[in-house]
Every structure is written in C-alpha cells, then in structure tokens.
Design goal:
The structure is a homodimer. By secondary structure, chain A is an alpha+beta fold. Chain A folds into 3 domains: 4-90 and 441-481, Uridine Diphospho-n-acetylenolpyruvylglucosamine Reductase, domain 2, CATH 3.30.43; 97-215, Uridine Diphospho-n-acetylenolpyruvylglucosamine Reductase, domain 3; 219-408, FAD-linked oxidase, cap domain/gating helix (Vanillyl-alcohol Oxidase, Chain A, domain 3), CATH 3.40.462.40. In chain A, 36% of the residues lie in helices and 20% in strands. The first copy, chain A, contains 16 helices and 18 strands. In chain A, helix 8 (230-242) runs antiparallel to helix 13 and helix 13 runs antiparallel to helix 14.
C-alpha cells in the first residue's frame, strides 16, 4: 500500500477534484477488457497537464510507488491493470483534437480522443485515418499507440504505427521528450518514436500525438464468400496475396462465429457452412472492378459455395456488419470471453486454421474463430466461464498449444493486442532470450526504479512476480462490502 | 593503436585471408562518401559468418577496441569513418539473396547485397522494392537499413524503414538477436527492429534482412514543369499534396543544378529558368490520367513556363535522367561537393527555398539545390574546395544557417543521410536535450563499453571527442609514402 502521506502529496499535485481513493473509483479502475485479471489501485488520478504528470513521475521515483497509465481500458492483454502499490493515471479527459493540418495531411490529438472521432474529423476534408481496431467506437488513441493497435484495414493500410508521425511524452523519470514531427523523412538520432509505439505504457506517457492522414479512397467493393472447408478459405487468402492484389480487407469467420453472428444480428447468413471470407477492395473504379473479378474467380476455383457481391453501399455495410459484430455476438454465449490474437505469416494460414481446429477438438473447448485473415492475424475466441476453474484450465491449455503452434509456424503470440500480463509468459519463446534481455535493457535504462507500469510485457525484478494481478476470484478485498 | 597481440587475436577469429593491416587497405577503408572526413583504422576485417562477428564483438568488449561496421561506404554523414583504436568490419562480401517468398511477398537478403539488385530480383515476379537512394547502383542494403535511406519514391512509398520486416543482428556485446519476421502484424514486446533501422551501426550489426515487397505498379506518367520562380515551384508542391494526390515522385532542381545537368547530360533542358519540378504519378490508367491532368492544371495556375509530358517510356526515362544525374553533374564543377539533406514539413517548402537562396547570396557560396520536394527533403549541395580553408569555412557557416532555419521551420537536420559525424553537433537542437539523453541511455545500456561505432550520432564519453576524425588535410600519416 502507498503510505497516506505519499497519497496526500499525489493529491496536492493534481488537486482534490482530480484525485480519488474511494472504493467505487478503485473498483472502476481495477480492470480493463481483459478477462480474468483485476487488481485494486491505491488511488486514481486524472492529471490536467503534462507538468502534473511529470511531477507525479518524479514523486513516484522518489517514493517508489508505481504508476499505471490508462485510456478507455479497452485493452485485451491486461496492460492497464493496476499492480502492487500503484495509482492509475487516467487520460480519458485529454480528449481534444488540437490541429487538423490540411497542407501537411496531419492531425494532432490528445491521447484521450476516441479513435473513431479522428477518422470522422479527417473524412470532413476528404482524408482518411485507416486504423480501425474492433473497439474503434470507444477506445482512445493513446491506448492504440501504446499497444500499436491493428484492425480490419491492416492488410492494405497497415497498423497504428504506420500513422504515428510524432509524439510528445513524459518519460518514466518525468522528463518531457518529443520524437518525430511533420517531416515525412527524419533520421536525426535514434527513432525513439517507433519504440514508444507498442511499448504498452511502460516507457512513457503520451501527452500529444501527431498522426498522418491519407487521401480517402473513393470507391470500394465488398464480397462475401462461403466455404465448406476452413482450410480452403485459408488457401483463398494465400492465393489472393500471391496474385499481387492487396485488398483493403480480408476477414474470416468460422462456423461457430457465423452462427453466433446470425443469432445476434439476423443478417440472413448461411449457418450450415464452415467458413466465410469478407473481402473488400478499394481504389479507382477500374482497379476495384478488375480486382473484384479476379478475387471472384479465385473463390470459385477454391470451391466457394456462395459468393455475394454488394451492389449498394447499404448492402456492403450489411455484409461488413457480419464481421464487425463477431466479438459482441460471441460474447453473449457464455459469461467469459477470452479473445486472443495468435498470428502467422499469411502463407501459413491454412495450416494454422487446421491446427486450431484440432486443438479445439482435443481440448474439448467452445471456441469461435475469426479475424484478419489477410494479415494471418486470427482471433480464436474461447467462450467459457471464469467461475469454473476446470473450464478456465482447459482454455489455458488450449491457448498454450495455440501460441506454441503459431511460434512453430514462424508466427507470433500477439498480432495487435500486446503482451501485457496475459502473454508475458510466452514472450521469451516468441522473441528469444537475447531479444528479451535487450528489451529489458531499454526499460531499465529509461525506468531505473521500475515505477512506470511495471510487470507488463516482462518482469524486471523477481519481487514483482508476487505483485501481479491474479484471477478475479482471488480478489476478496471489497467482496463483503458490496 | 590496438596492440599487436590483440590484432593477432582478431586475425585468428576471421582467418588470415580475411584480415588486413596493410597500408593500402587502411587507406581504402579510411573514408566514405562524406567529404572532409578521413581516418585510418588499425586493421580491416572481412568476417565470414555471424559467429565470427559475435566473437569479434566479445573480444572488443574485453580488449576495449572499437569496431566500425561498413558496407559500400556510400554514406554521406561519416557513419563508417574509422575512429581511434578501431577496426573496420567490411560486410560487402555478404552479398547473397537468401529467399524470395512469393506467397508472403518478402525477400530475405544478406546486408552486403547492392540495393538495386533487390528490386531487379523483385521485378522478375511482378513485385517492387521501392526505396531508391541516389546511390542505388552501388550502396548496400545493410547500410540502407542502418541509415534508414530514403530516395526519390519516398513521397508515396516511404523509406527503407517501411520495408524492413525483420532483422537478424549481432549486438554490441556479441549476442545474436532477431526482431520482426514475416508476420505483417506483430506486437510481441518492444519493437527493437525499428530502433535498429537508422541506428547508424551503433546498436548492432545486421547479418540477415527480411524485406517487404509490394505489387509492382503497372502504369505511370512523368511530367517536367519549368518555373521562373523557385518559390512558385515550392507552392506547386504544397498545392498538389493539399489536392489529395500523392504522386510517386515530386523532385526539384534549381537553376544551378539545371545548368550543371544540361552541361553533363545534354538533355535539351531550358537553362534560363529558375526551377524545374519532375513529377511522376503511378497507379491504374484511369487514376494516372486524372491525376496528371490535375497536376498539369496546378502547374499552369502557378505560372509554369513550360510543361513537358512524357509520351513514351523512353521519354519518361530521359526526363528522370535529369534528376538522377543531378549529384554527378554538380560534383564535376569543383573538387569538393558537400551534399546535405535539410528537411522541412512540405508546407514549409517555399519558405525554406527562399531562406536557402538568401543564405547562399549572403555567404557568397556556390550551391546547387535539388531534392525530394514532395517530402520537403532538399539536397542543398555546396560546390567548393576542401584545400581552401576559407572556402570550407564559408560553406560550414552557410550550412549552420541552413540547418538552424530547417529546425526553426519545424524541420530536421537530416531527412535521409543520418547524423553520423557530420551533423552530431546539431542533434541536440533537433531532438532536444532530454530526447538526446534518452537516446544515449539506449546506447549505454546496449553497448556498456562503447565499442560499436562510438562517437557516431552523439558522443557518449568526453574522451572520444579528441579521437574523432578531422579534415583530410590533417591526416599526414601516409602522405610521404605515396
């Protein structure tokens, strides 16, 4: 526990109205969107400016408490879960769009801006902010940058990293640093910006984010193809890429997911088939017609049972709804939804789909599989019940096997959710022991007292291990009071 | 000087045939393409495999000598110039293309492969490796990655960083680490790969490089527009970008450069005008026609005196030759050519062009200005004579003013050449003192004995300052023997 006199010092930095140590607030900020993890912070603070954050970090280094930065808490790897002796630093009030620069095609935002609003703002002047994580309607851009969030359009347009031009941030020791800017080329010194993107709140706290925008594509075409075999749907993906077409979207849904989506959204999907692919191409009219035709013929060659081509914007939206509602649809089935993001090189997708199916059967779990097939980025989603340890144990065993299979196929343990707490045990297998060692060197040199979001991604000091959050079931602190 | 017994140990690691301490070799590896800098190494080694490099780095840490890695030596910021007590580690023999993976659109190469060969290999199967630094015909990909090299196609296609998917590298302490891979999405742990790109040989030595390829554009159109005012040519660039068109190339040449190019290549250019823009658009036929027409009308509106549109592939090549030969054409004029790469946000281009003109007039230097206008990345090139100190002094003063102007306009000291030795004195102004401090923390934590290419980008320990290379004139060591 942080000592009361230290909490008072923190309160005096941010002011009474921006500080809370009430039970209600501690509960609200004890979890994020990651299942199974929860821990109460000692206090919750809402800093108003960079100077306050800087002072908090300096105090944290003096008094040795931990600071856990947090946006909307939509993360899926436990990156914003409190740790022992920690305060949560909430950035959601930093929600201003600071500048839209039409002549340089950039937008500058505060970290608490909801991601979708950035693209809405860009669209007003014919520009486009492509990254679209599933949580786009409620996640904040600071979290997107911290996790290097992906989304449905990654295949053609890349991920958050590809749009971050500049960052203003507070270091773990309280300095303000800037990296990058409006120059589209800049090689002055080390590229600190790109190691900050995806650093999961462990290397700094963003206070200003400069993003690249691109001209908005004017035409697109959406197709939906159904298959009798998941493996064949995977082969279609490989063949499209090998044909030198880069669609703006190739999304996959397996049978379980199709059924749940149909139950949830009543789109008239054929629920008897094994897999569907949602494919979108964009570009000039000529280009999308040519590419859509080529994709159509590849789907046919691979025995697609049914191929729908949206004839109107509204119909395209309806088809895309099938994919966009996958997570919500699956989440209704059982009390606990464990959404993962094992990723493999695109050419290994058929093998990975087959392996997941085998693991699901052998471990006897209920799992819906969907995801960004064009990126080899799958979201195997286990529908389970956290109150039942044997269920959770089965799920964990299945995911262990899934991640190990991904690594064996040259893949990775996380394509877009981050390592956080959930996947730190797999990190060494994914990046090698020397790779892990050199990541730790960066962290230790920037955060010598290990006060900024410690224990996430990896554990620096053994003392932290006991301090990590556990299953919610283990948290009894308030249970009798509520 | 490195002691003879240590040199013997180095020789025994790489073998007699891969080690040289002859005067001839020391001279050959004493300089790169950066003017004014030269220093002799104590030996030159040509390692054959990763294990030898690892052993050399471990020995360097034990015996405290420095290792300067080097490819073709085409760098323009002195990144591969030897330092005190150093050996040069030459990677040009690592010139194999290891794999071309058509299903994942990747190519794996050794660091000594000449950049142009990568695109030639990709082209055979309809793919494209876009980064095209001016030295494309002789520079090596390892150096491109180390410097994050740019080129003419940066505007639409980005720079080297945007194509590096994975790296195998030897750390300063001799460990082998891997970062990235064929997964198009991967957020497992810190993004070490992207801090390695542009680290100028100070954080590791690449032994394997995995690059992304993209489908090759099938159509392009090339325009050449002449202007009576450099500022108006700069305004054309801003207006094209603001019109939401991203050409594959917008290159600028000023009057001095046009004249030199015409003298050199006899292309029939109008040498009486102040500036020319070379603009290329690519994409579908429909798209390039529409965009070329729009660009044509913007040029006309901004009083272009003459606009040429290439009607054939051969004519397009002829127009592009005007730009591609700019550096060679300027380099013929005087004994010493100092090519710089001050960069500003695109919208600041007219202001920057005006400022450079003013500085050139006031400092009374001979300067040709050209560059990647679409990126705000200019190459003001001073034509001078290194044997004349007063000339060099004037050039240095002019460049000081040019870099400070770039920084004042929100620009940077280097868009694509790197900081190296030439620009380290400007780095703090460009990235801030806290930013510089955090870069040094990374270096110190990875290279605690400061043995890998020390003194480049920044100086870690004061002792190094005296050890840095000086003007060639100061180097007398071999002068009497040659």
């Amino acid at each position: 526990m942080i000592e009361p006199k230290v909490l008072s010092k923190i309160e005096s930095i941010v002011g009474k109205k921006n500080f809370s140590a009430t039970k209600e607030d501690k509960i609200c900020y004890s979890y994020d969107a990651t299942p199974l993890l929860q821990k109460y912070p000692d206090a919750v603070v809402f800093p108003e400016d960079a100077e306050q954050i800087s002072k908090i970090m300096k105090l944290a280094n003096q008094e040795k408490f931990s600071v856990v930065p947090r946006g909307a808490g939509s993360g899926l790897s436990g990156g914003s879960i409190p740790v022992d002796d920690s305060i949560v630093l909430v950035m959601t009030r930093w929600n201003k769009i600071l500048e839209l620069d039409e002549s340089n095609l950039t937008i500058t935002v505060q970290p608490g801006v909801i991601t979708e609003l950035i693209d809405i703002e860009a669209e007003k002047i014919g520009l486009f902010y492509p990254p679209d994580p599933g949580s786009i309607k409620f996640c904040t851009i600071g979290g997107n940058v911290a996790e290097n969030a992906g989304g449905l359009r990654g295949l053609k347009y890349g991920v958050t990293k590809n749009y971050v031009l500049g960052l203003e941030m507070i270091t773990p020791t309280g300095e303000v640093i800037y990296s990058g800017g409006k120059n589209v080329k800049d090689v002055a010194g080390y590229n600190l910006r790109d190691i900050m993107v995806g650093s999961e709140g462990t290397l700094g706290i963003f206070t200003k984010i400069l993003l690249k925008l691109i001209p908005r594509p004017t035409n697109s075409k959406t197709l939906l193809a159904f298959f009798n075999s998941t493996i064949q749907s995977g082969e279609v993906v490989s063949e499209i890429i090998a044909s030198k077409i880069i669609p703006s979207m190739i999304e996959f849904l397996d049978k379980t997911t199709i059924k749940c989506v149909e139950d949830y959204a009543h789109l008239g999907l054929n629920t008897n088939l094994e897999a569907l692919l949602l494919i979108e191409v964009d570009g000039s009219k000529e280009e999308i017609d040519r590419n859509a035709e080529l994709i159509h013929s590849i789907c046919k060659k691979k025995n697609a049972v049914e191929i729908l081509v949206a004839q109107t914007e509204a119909e395209a939206l309806r088809l895309k709804t099938a994919r966009r509602s996958a997570f919500s649809a699956l989440a209704r089935v059982k009390p606990t939804t464990i959404l993962e993001d094992a990723t493999v090189p695109r050419s290994k997708l058929p093998e990975m789909l087959e392996a997941i199916q085998k693991i699901v059967n052998e471990e006897n779990i209920l799992l819906g599989n969907f995801g960004h097939a064009g990126d080899g980025n799958l979201h195997p989603t286990c529908l389970t019940d956290e109150r039942d340890y044997s269920e959770i144990h089965k799920a964990e065993k299945a995911f262990d096997r899934i991640f190990n299979t991904a690594i064996k196929l040259g893949g990775t343990i996380t394509g877009e959710h981050g390592t956080g707490l959930s996947k730190s045990k797999f990190l060494e297998a994914a990046v090698g022991s020397a790779g892990l060692e050199f990541m730790k060197k960066v962290k230790s040199s920037w955060d010598p007292n290990n006060v900024l979001n410690p224990g996430k991604i990896f554990t620096l000091k053994p003392k932290c291990e006991g301090a990590l959050p556990k299953f919610k079931n283990d948290i009894k602190e308030f249970s009798t009071n509520l």
